[in-house]
Design brief:
The protein is an alpha/beta fold and 689 residues long. Helix 3 links the parallel strand 2 (47-48) and strand 3. The site of magnesium ion (MG) has 4 residues, from helix 12.
Length: 689
């Protein structure tokens, strides 16, 4: 008997070849199939006679095969199978490409259902092209014709027919699924039963029920997020944290000694954070601010007060390069204090007070409060790393981390205050859904004196001129980044590689300039030295992959040239562009494309038209549609949305309302054991990510 967790290969017609292909798209067990929803439907629900279908564009016919044969196309590249079919009203030609086996499959005189698109060909008249087919025997409950036919997101050579055939076999399992949402909640909110919704999402009886099925399944995904957020918030409220006292005078002095004046938005955000940390339950806050808006120093103000309270701070960055940079920035910011600062990545250990230190020594010091601030990468999350008094955890560029890491750190025995930072300018409505468990501070103002980065698409005939322009800028002591999509050459992609461009620039274009290549495969010490040299203006041009995409702060760099720009998402391009324009000089972002496709240019035009990340995020949302909101792909959150979209505002509002009601009536959800179980299971699964 098949059940939810039965492996797919127990289904009829799944051999090892097919199960291997299915596993490639993460379809391993029956429930994976059940929750693999169609992304659209072909409407073949009308079964028509041949004379009628000619007037329509698509549909299903039931007809008798009069003749069928296969021949090669005139250039022999394709096989063409032609059939003549008829019913009592008329006859029609059917064409299939590259499916010669159909000649054997069908016999003359057989009655078959055909569904597909009708094309009117100038010389041959009406034709049905590549239709799906089903013979009346299995057509009691047709799945490929005569209905709304589901079309699934697929890759790796599985056909729509195959997957439909498999999903059809899961229907008995679907019918046994118990609903976790109480009947009265369903009734008052016009939500259909879960197993019915699942059955209908795959094989809808009609459009109306299909719409209801979609609504119910969207509801489930969004409700679980809301409920999880409630639970997390509640857990936090019940946790004890160390109150961080605000050191007014020392903070004022620190701010006064900064080389710049804080923007109002920075002050406001810092105040929100400091205020939050003054409470005895943990802060859980997201600091959102566009690339270059100055989040680091705001974090610095929080860290300052935490250390003054004799508590430790753990600061996580997504890349080694960035961790290294922050280590330097904070060592410098706190140079007038005797704070002990350390760096720990999988390849590097440093402190600001001792030349050489081993990992064991460092870990010992952390456990004894001999380190006030530790900066690092994922390497900081290890069971052996224990803090004596962890007061604050900061996650920089948090969209680069999974939600599970956030959870992991939150669930330490001591409850530290928690600050995540992101440059991902998520529209506010979306942020509230995504991060409903967090409070949000927004830096919506750039430091004074920043100029708009001039962004341009560079056509091949302008390459020479552009390189000349770059040379002029470098003569004026400026520096440039050149970004390539690849490290090594690859014939397949036809994209520019770092190695190729490095050779090109050093030998042909700028033989007299100081150029270095940077990418993720280099040794950490090499990477570190290159960045240091670039910062010290020992290097004019850095040819790099996207390893420098996030966070890197080099004020003197004013040119960002991106090869194969259409290969990157808007969010990524915005981040890359954000590497320049961080000082007061006029900066430039040049986009070179590998294709001249119009859609690519349209997308890039959005980047040209605005420097504002929030506006770009809105545009990106329009262009790509939700599900892949601006740079949140890696957040581990979006993957849990299969059918719901972050623009489903009505359903989001509904889920919020219901979650609020339930938690109000029953704060620990005792009254709703099924819902509680469902949410806990979902929390568990994000932990295992
Ligand atoms: P991000 O928000 O992208 O992390 P950073 O914190 O790295 O930005 O700041 C970008 C640059 O702007 C840094 O060089 C920083 O020193 C500088 N900066 C930060 N705040 C201000 C300010 N109020 N005025 C001028 N420069 C600032
Ligand atoms: Mg930053």
């Amino acid at each position: 008997m098949i059940e939810l967790k039965t492996p797919i290969n127990k289904l009829t017609s799944v051999g090892s070849a097919i199960s291997k292909k299915l596993s490639k798209i993460n379809l391993l067990t029956i429930d994976d199939l059940i929750f693999h929803y169609p992304f659209r439907y072909d409407d073949y629900s009308e079964v028509l006679t041949i004379d009628k279908i000619k007037a329509k564009k698509t549909g299903t016919i039931k007809a008798i095969i009069k003749s069928i044969s296969t021949h090669s196309s005139f250039n022999r590249k394709m096989s063409i199978t032609e059939a003549l079919v008829s019913d009592k009203t008329d006859s029609l030609k059917i064409i299939w490409f590259n499916q010669p086996y159909l000649t054997k499959k069908f016999t003359k005189g057989q009655t078959v259902y055909f569904a597909g698109k009708i094309i009117k060909n100038k010389t041959h008249g009406f034709q049905l092209i590549n239709p799906s087919y089903e013979t009346p025997l299995d057509n009691k409950n047709p799945i490929h014709t005569g209905r709304l036919v589901p079309i699934y997101p697929l890759t790796s050579n599985i056909t729509q027919k195959q997957i439909r055939f498999l999903i059809k076999q899961t229907i008995p399992v679907i019918q046994k699924i118990n609903d976790w949402l109480h009947r009265d909640i369903r009734a008052t909110n016009n939500l259909i039963d879960l197993s019915f919704a699942l059955e209908q999402i795959h094989f809808p009886s009609d459009k109306k029920i299909m719409t209801k099925a979609i609504k119910r399944l969207k509801f489930d995904e969004l409700f679980i997020i809301q409920a999880k957020n409630h639970l997390i918030r509640q857990n936090i409220k019940h946790k004890q944290a160390h109150k961080i006292k605000f050191y007014l005078a020392k903070t004022k002095k620190f701010v006064k000694e900064l080389p710049f004046k804080l923007t109002n938005a920075q002050k406001r955000s810092a105040w929100e954070i400091i205020n939050d940390m003054g409470k005895d339950n943990p802060m859980n806050r997201l600091l959102e601010g566009d690339v270059g808006s100055g989040k680091t120093v705001v974090a610095g103000l929080a860290i300052l007060n935490v250390i003054l309270n004799s508590q430790q701070t753990c600061y996580m960055a997504p890349t080694e390069i960035l961790a290294e940079q922050h280590f330097n920035t904070f060592s410098n910011l706190f140079k007038n204090f005797s704070f002990k600062i350390a760096l720990l990545t999988s390849n590097s250990i440093k402190t600001n007070f001792k030349k050489k230190i081993t990992k064991i020594e460092l870990i010992k010091k952390l456990a004894q409060l001999d380190i006030d601030l530790i900066i690092g990468t994922h390497a900081l999350i290890q069971p052996i790393i224990k803090f004596k008094k962890l007061g604050l955890v900061i996650i920089d560029e948090q969209h680069r981390f999974g939600t599970s890491q956030r959870q992991h750190l939150l669930e330490q025995t001591v409850s530290p205050h928690f600050l995540s930072m992101t440059a991902t300018p998520i529209p506010r409505s979306v942020a509230l859904t995504l991060y409903g468990d967090l409070d949000i501070s927004i830096i919506d103002e750039m430091p004074k004196g920043r100029k708009k980065i001039i962004t341009k698409i560079i056509k091949p005939i302008e390459y020479k001129k552009t390189y000349e322009f770059i040379k002029e800028e470098i003569t004026k002591q400026k520096q440039a980044f050149v970004i390539c999509p690849l490290i090594d050459e690859s014939d397949k992609l036809g994209a520019m590689s770092v190695k190729q461009e490095y050779i090109n620039l050093t030998t042909n274009i700028f033989p007299n300039l100081k150029i270095k290549a940077l990418h993720g495969k280099l040794k950490s010490t090499t990477k570190e030295k290159i960045i240091k040299d670039f910062l010290a203006k020992q290097i004019d041009i850095l040819v790099s992959t996207t390893v420098i995409e996030v966070g890197i702060d080099i004020k003197n760099a004013s040119i960002m040239l991106i090869h194969g720009a259409e290969r990157f998402g808007l969010a990524q391009l915005h981040q890359l562009r954000g590497r320049v324009g961080r000082g007061e000089d006029q900066s430039y972002c040049f986009l070179m494309l590998d294709t001249d496709s119009i859609t690519a240019t349209e997308r890039l035009n959005a980047l040209i038209s605005t420097n504002n990340g929030f506006e770009l995020a809105e545009k990106d949302l329009e262009i790509r549609g939700p599900g892949e909101i601006f740079g949140t792909q890696q957040s581990g959150f979006i993957t849990s949305l299969k059918i719901a979209k972050l623009t489903d505002v009505k359903i989001i509002a509904l889920t919020k309302k219901i979650a609020k009601q339930l938690f109000y009536q029953s704060p620990r959800l005792e009254k709703y054991p099924l819902i509680k179980k469902k949410i806990q299971a979902s929390i568990m699964s994000t932990h295992l990510e």
